User: Fold these one by one.
Assistant:
Number 1:
Amino acid sequence: MTLLQVDGASKRFGNLVAIHDVSLTIEPGELRAIIGPNGAGKTTFFNLVSGLFAPTSGSIRFEGRDISALAPDERVRRGMARTFQITEIFPDLSVADNIRVAVEIAAGYRLRPWLAGKARRAVAERVAELLSLSGLADKAHVRAGALSHGDQRAAEIMMSLALKPRLLMLDEPTAGMGDQETYDIARLIRRLHRREGLTIMLIEHDMRVVFNLADRIMVLAEGKVLAEGPPQEIAESEKVQGAYLGKAAA
Amino acid sequence: MTQVVLFNVFNGLIVGAFYALMALGLSLILNLSGVINFAHGGFLALGAYFAYTLIPYVGFWGALILAPPLTAVLGLVVEWLLIRPLYGKDPLYSLLLTFGLAYIFEDVSRMIWGAQSVPFQVPAWLMSPLSSQYFFLTGYRVFMVIIVAAAVGGLFAVLKYTRLGMRIRAGTRDLDTVSTLGVNVRVLRSLNFGIGIYMAGLAGVLAAGLLGLSPTIGANLIMPSFVAIIVGGLGSLFGTLLGGLLIGVASGLAAVYFPSATEAVIYVMMGLVLLIRPRGLLGEEGRIH
Amino acid sequence: MRRGRAFDAAVCVILLFMPFWMGAIGGYTELATRIVVMGLAAMSLNFLLGFTGVLSFGHAAYFGLGAYGAAMAIKYLDAGTIPAIGLGVVVATIAAMVIGALIVRLRGVYFAMVTIAFGQVFYFIAFRWNAVTGGDDGLTGWHRLPIDFGFARLDIFQNDKAFYYFALAIFAICVGAMAVLLNSPFGRSLIAIRENERRARFLGVPIEWHVWLSFVISCLFVSVAGALYALLNNFTDPRALRFDLSGNFVIMAVLGGMRSFWGPLIGAAIFVALQDYVSSHTENWMSVIGLVFVLVVRFFPRGVLGMLRSGAKA
């Protein structure tokens, strides 16, 4: 069954049409990259899918069910998780506590006033697992706000992972990072995709990351779908080159 | 019966005009700077006391002209010294600070002018009724409505037609952008605060003539201002105006039919608005968070 | 919330012996009880304010409902002490549940404004409903009764110290419950909301529900404090419902340290002692209290424990 199906979604803010008639289908196990020049509407698209606002028209279906009217937290509970362009974590809590909160919520404990010994140990184990997956184990007790950019991003991805999502949405995961950090995050994403079999939708500007990781690429420009296809096709597309270079030339 | 109803509705409208004047100042400050000025009532009282002190020297009209700007100057000083450092911080802090200021203002008023009511001299001809049939239409009440209308009209005119007003309106929507466009945001906030306090001072002078003057005059009027803003809608000055008038009239009507609930009725209205339309009658979406 | 066990133990010891060392520094037992009661109120408010990050400036409403509930139960229903407290708590909690549901979609300054306004509703009711509440003069003509446990009798009426320990026991139960809650997955979900509401939402936390729960729990415990306060004074009046008391609760929490568990208790101790001292020495206690607000905000926003903590780190 198709995991995510967006049909003709549009979003206007007053007179501004941010997204126009965008459709997309994502199959389980895919890694889909969404690229495009600045202002193309990529993050708006993410906001639409993740539920920050409702589409002006069109529909969004997740695992066959229409989620267009659902609140963000409901969509998360249905299996969609996302990260943000500006990392959203709990700055004053330790890295371990950040992940622990996510693990507890994922385990359905968010209303529990008390955790028995067995449950507590299971949570601790899962937290340790996620810490080592991201290489943050030695920073477990550091205040999350004090971490480097790349580490905060990794922590945020781990928190989203803790939810055992069926679709992971990453908004510019390598934004503002140097080469080494970019490489580390890209490697982490690839591991999540290949080893853990996660379905991932990714907004990226760094073409090295895009072309190395993506199964299919969707190109947005000025709120509309410009092109869509496997990386090779997109790389050779004159339309796409025009969209990027044309902007630079102008 | 109609006389009584009319009397109370008219009274309610006057009271509502008051609430609106005070609430508009509060709303102005809240919308641009995100500060709940709990000391607004204190400024109102001080405005009245300044006028009271000036009347022997410049008469009622002189006091009416001079007291509000004087209060605004005090407001600017307070804003500069105490409130400015709090912008951008948790709104908790400005609320606590202005709360403390309200205490201080009331106590200082008591120290300087005494705890008892003081006689506030309004020109006698203003106090006389304008019509034998509608005895409640005293000159003072009509005069008040005129002044409030002028002040509100003036405020909206400033906001719509002057550069300052435009910047305030833009800043209410997006202060960051306004700042990057080169506007001095600190000065903007100060001036905005000053305008808000001016209105509080003016409301004070008018209120003293109607309700009498004592140190607690401000504390009694601040709650209805809050309710006016909530009912009228967050972020909308016009809504605040409407809210003030509505709750004034509502309490006026309540005085006829449910006298013991006159004060409570405005809270009932607030409860209803929150239930049915949380952002208020003219409130804008997205202003809630 | 990283308080050491040693600190907890120290607080317990200090509280356990307060009536005894209070006298030595010029205090008296009733003052000690007042500190415990206000401390409970401030800590209850802080459950919502410091740990969930939601600013309520109207908690006096529920404090007052607890007070009036208990007082009226004793005066009109001849209730025993514990049932009276229970009634006060039930009334306040129901009110909190209803009002909370109305306002939970708001946040920030607007939430604060609305909590203030709702507080005033109850103030007016207490003020106007003379026949039942005694109006502005307050509810008099009743007093707390000795508690009969069957095997023993605790004379909390005549014996100040007995009432102190009774209040302390209730304090301990409430505070213990709050500590357990804050240290649980539910408590962590609240702290998450405080830390980053958007991230909490995108982890699947239904924010409004959790804020509502935090609000109700916080009001429940504050109403216990209110009931104790009425018992302490054998009296209650509309001032127990007024927004200035709400403001006092907030300043107690901030003064002591909003981000720490015991902070509000320390803030309450300082505030109550100061108020007691100042009001017996000068007429201008209002200015002094106002000055406290201004000074705390300008110079000690992190509060006593907040400053001590960063001092320890550095």
Number 2:
Amino acid sequence: MLLTLIIVLPFIGSVCAALLPTNARNAEAWLAGAVAVTCALLVGSQYFAVAGGGVVRTAWAWLPQAGLDVYFRMDAYAWLFALLVSFIGALVVLYARYYMSPEDPVPRFFSFLLAFMGAMLGTILSGNLIQLVVFWELTSLTSFMLIGYWYHLADARRGARMALIVTVGGGFCLLLGMLLLGEIVGSYDLDRVLAAGDAIRAHAWYGPMLVLIVVGVITKSAQFPFHFWLPHAMTAPTPVSAYLHSAAMVKAGVFLLARFWPALHGTGLWFWLICTAGATSLLLGAFSALFQRDMKGVLAYSTISHLGLITLLLGMDTELALVAAVFHMLNHATFKASLFMATGIVDHETGTRDLKRLSGLRHAMPITASIAAVAAGAMAGVPLLNGFLSKEMFFEESIVAGSASEVRFALPLIATLWGIFSVAYSARFIHQVFFGPPARDLPRPPHEPTRGMIVPSALLVVACLLVGVVPAVTLGPLLKEAAFSLLGPDLPEYELAVWHGVSTPFVMSLVALGGGMAFYAFLVKRGLAMMPAPLLSRLDARRAFDLVNVAIVRGADKAAHAIFSSRLQPQLLLIVASALLAAAVALQDTVFVGNAPLTPPDPLFVLLWIGGAACALGAAQQAKFHRFAALTMLGGAGLVTCLTFAWFSAPDLALTQISVEVVTVTLLLLGLRWLPPRILSDDERRRTARARLRRARDLALAVAAGTGFAAITFALLTRPPMLGLASFFVEHALEHGGGRNVVNVILVDFRGFDTLGEITVLGIVALVVYALLRRFRPAPESVDVPDAQREDEAREAAFGAPRDLLPQGYMKVPAVLARLLLPIAAFISFYFLLRGHNAPGGGFVGGLVMATGFIVQYMVGGTIWVESRLKIHPQLWVALGLLAAVGAGMGAWLSSRPFLTAVAADVRLPFVGGVHVSSVLLFDFGVYMLVIGATVLMLVALAHQSLRSPRKRAALDGLTEPLEEPDEALR
Amino acid sequence: MNALIMHLPILPIVVPLVAGAVLMLLAEEHRAWRLTIAFSSLVVQLAVAVALLYLSTDAVPDIWSEGVGVYALGAWPTPFGILLVVDRLSALMLTLTAIVSLAGLVYAMAGWERPPQPLHSLYQLLMMGLNGAFLTGDLFNLFVFFEVLLAASYGLLLRGAGVQRVRNALHYIAVNLVASLFFLIGVALIYGTLGTLNMADLLGKVALLAPPERALFDTGAAILGIAFLVKAGSWPLNFWLPGSYSVALPPVAAVFAMLTKVGVYALLRIGTLLGEDEAAAAILGPILFYFGFATLLAGTAGMLATQHLRRLVSYSVIVSSGLLLATLGVGSEALTPAALFYFATSVLTTCAFFMVTGMTDRTRIAADSAAVPSADAAAAVVPPTPAYVAFGVREPQPYDTSEEVGAAIPAAMAFLGLMFVCCVLLVAGLPPLPSFVAKFALLQAAIHSAPEVHVPAEAWALVVGILATGFAQIIALTRIGVRLFWAGTGRRTPRLRVLEAAPVAVVVVLCLALSAMSGTAMRFFEAAAQSLHAPEVYTRIVLSAPGADQPSGGERR
Amino acid sequence: MEIVYALAIGVLAGAGVWLLLRPRTFQVIIGLSLLSYATNLFIFGMGRLTLHRPPIIDEEGAIDAALYADPVPQALVLTAIVIGFATTALFLVVLIALRGLSGTDHVDGRERD
């Protein structure tokens, strides 16, 4: 319970911090400080619970099915780190209060700082592998926000993104590693994992699993080859660096490694993998630290090097090395944090961190100077400071561990070399900044900072001294507890003491100290101290990172262009091709000739279809240059189709097909007017070889599709029919459907639901067409009106107001006839509607007939005339039609029957005869209305365009005209 | 009450239909009325969906046995009439649809739904199509509802012209028309070989087929499968997707989050109903994994390539459906629950993200979009202004705050940034948001079942694919996010209306809730997956539906 | 008969596919219409070919499914025809609009170069 509080508190604090006003620095600081201190105290209070190998646990189920629980677990090791994180967190808050300038938006800073603290504590206290990864990723995210805090600086943005990408990538590897580990152990529970060491090492997946986890670890702890993000993360505000990049985040990696040490260590792979990474970073970091100009740069590389040391210790896999590693994690945290703070002070008071410009600050800021000096001493491993102790242990272990393996001499050598380097860069760090003649041209006159910035770093330095002088009474016991919680009974005997007598490690330290000083002196004498690092400066992580980034984008761009296309033809080609392919694969073992008796071919039918085929092919060939011809032939093909329906006893289909045919062709005719003229010659000439190839390919595909389709059709036609549904429908149509025309009964009753959807589609399309054409403007070259219409306009000019006029001249007679035709059309359509249930017909056909009536009016009467005469309200018809149909369906609810259940009665009407009046009829009537409405709406909208075209010019020059002109016919 | 429960399954279809029709009648002047009707209809749909969800969990066994509800339209006996079938999966789909559409509508109220476009009725009819597609138990009826939702989506896509939009709409329509033809051919073949259209009836009838007929049936299933893959946006059948989704207005795109998922749903539904034998192979066969994996990779490449946020989100839609298809393709039942979990989260994600893009567009300084060397020139959403005037488009002008709808929210930029980050986490599957939980569950199931699936390599490929694409998405999204929120100098802070901000926030909060309640949610998904993989139960219940045992006719009058 | 019918469908489909892959919007719409003819005929064919037996029940005479053509495919085709009609109309209008906006009748709204 209390553990949960420790985790949750910082997050709550972070939310509160976010809500405070922008300039409330003190409030923020108090809030954050309070949270941090409380956490520290809460952790501290648990000491006796975890001492002596005790473990505090809290757990809830989260995703129990997958073994993912919220499980917080604190043993002495976790306790020690939780304490460290919250304690240093508190100091950093205090420091930041004075470091941040009034114009910085502090809520964001403290809110993310607290969130980070929470995530870090969560990582430390996680008892479930996956939950650990969750918090791990959270630390990456929050650190991204903190590094990018000053996002107006391009470097901050880049550094933040670099850190995020590297650590999150590592996080994904870690996740996979943990998944594998959990799968091996059969649980994500940390206790069980730690208990199952041998099983894990024996498992086949051990290798990949270990590699993945190690990648996660070394990305987070900035180890070679993933170390490059850390120096660029130095663009963060210094408090952030002091916290994340010394004490907290970068430690998460090594923390994890030590955490799983008991379960994973003790194999060759472990030794080589981790030692290589560690040793490389150890030397590389220490060496490059020598040549940095930026103070924080020096510290960043030294961090890499010290983390390398810890990694190396963990890789050596001797128990004592593990203890040394844990010990050094703590020491490094203390002295590095205080060094960062000192750097921040220098930066804050002088306005620069450039080692070239800084000099002789000890006169201006003695306190800071002494603090920094002591901390640097610890970093260099000077006796009587905590760094010295862990360094001694390191040297010791480098000899012991090395002696076993092939690297007998390598390890001690590396260690000593590292010692030399680190002494050198520590010396340089202090000497450059604080000694020598006072610097002249500093941006600000240097002076001691406010107490608020001194105190935290001073406290840390004091800690360094205490631990360094009397380790046994300060950190010693805690360290023992932590080590015991890791190693349990097989924790080796050791003692932390300043003086072990003259031993090999001691000699090595002396060599390191002396050598380091000498080396630094040599560098200064040669003036190399300020040079960019030899060799290493060549590999500039930032440029490399950017290059990789660009490369990725370029590559992806190329790929995307290769695998996607914004053109329609390739898409359709692929769709058709893949359908063909799928069909071909499925069809492999079928027989294309069934056993059903064939009907003898009828010459007339053959003739019919010869014509039909000719039409189809003709349309295909003509559609580009002779649109009108193509359209006519399309009509021909449609007609033949329609006759075929009639032929094979489907009168309803024939009727519907023919009426749809009429309307469609009319629509297309109206549309033709807007398409650009195309003369045969214009691109026949420039038809390249590629074009020919393309056409050949398309032709092949078309032929394949045709053949396949024909084959499947034949295969099915020659098999006995499946009358499963048919029999039921035929038998019940009259009795329960109350209609003789089974097809119509199916449409309005058995499967009326389909029809409901179908008319909905029609209605939607009508709406869309209307909405689209209201805003339509034709293309410039197609605006000049066709001759016929020009004549009309001439006439209008002659005879004044057009609206009173009938079309004159050759159009007069048909116009009159057409007017007479309208009522007839209405009558016929209604007749179709009513008889539909018993004979071919129905609402749909009826509606189309009526619509055709209106079309004829338009064709002969001319748009203006018609629209001045009759006001149709198509939208009204559509809506009412839909409502009628739905209403018919809902009627059934009254008799508590399911939707669309027919409710009916038989009546006799004059002329029409016996009619089956029912909700079904209402339904069909709805269809009727909707079809009229929709069809007319489309036709009117399309025809209406001709009125609009001349205004196009007005629209183009001087865009003055109103956006919407009222469409009389449609209101 | 009982009657209401009895008619519950039809409501998600009838309510939006009626609302849509009424909205057609209502002139554009009565804005308040139109909004009220549209809004309340969606609220009712949400309520109904939740009720169905509750019933489908087998909470009230005496109403629906084993959580499967059947509604026989016209009270015709079962294999003959059309049925609506509600089980966990379809109830889940209905709920998601309702949530997404409600969010989209509220968002649209901030001014996106101004005339002249008939948004509201189309929106309602789109809902009708979606709900119908999820509810129907009849193959041909499924086709009809696909057409309904497609027709509505054409209309919604065309809102606000501009040559890009019309051009992409044309492509979208052409592709879908072809797909619909395939759909018809497939259904016809299935009817021709089995003589039934009822989905539940398929399983039994397929078993009786002789090999040659069986091959014909498989052909039908395969062609049907291609049609569904087109709708699901599977590579290489998805070139239409980025274009059309990225030009749709944000609230519309937010609802389109559901559209690709309909294809996945159909594959899942019919594939499982055909049983786990090689009948399924025709439609959900081994090829599915490769389609899905290719889609996953292609979508990721697209995300990395594009510099345009909306287009990037469109590609993320492709990635998510690729991931789903690949997961289903591996063909291990253990993966299905996690897949459903991911399904749900990805719907919410896409919805939220598209709504966010609508707001981030307003932060962009005019130069920005042009300055960026866009990987795809086709992505230019906004045509030059004169064209606007000439074509009389009424799109809310990005920068005008004259037409305030509702109050503006404080700290707009902070809010927007937070929402953006949440969306990024959702897309890339980072903690603490539910897509992490979903992906984790997927990975775990994949690793766990790797040994016993047909092709273990597929499972491992899936594992690597999920993580790698997640990483690539982080790269792409941070690049665009940093440019959008950090790099821009002189970038304007948009005035966000509460009506825009609220739905996004709500969806994100829903996501958080989902990840907090993962355990409960996962139990539901497991149950749903279980019933999916036991088609015989579904079949039994449907075929013995109430519609059948009543004497059809007689007292029907 | 069956052969002719199958071939007819084949020809319609082939012509349709060819036009579908052409670059001009008008060609595409004609192609779509041809394809939908083919599809409708195909669906209709699922009821097999029956002569002179329309599914309209006459007063007397036993009601036996075998005596009539299968009405189900006919009903499906009717629905398909209507939907096809609607979508064709929509496509037509969109292509006109594209033509109006882009000034070309190329399916991609710009001439291929």
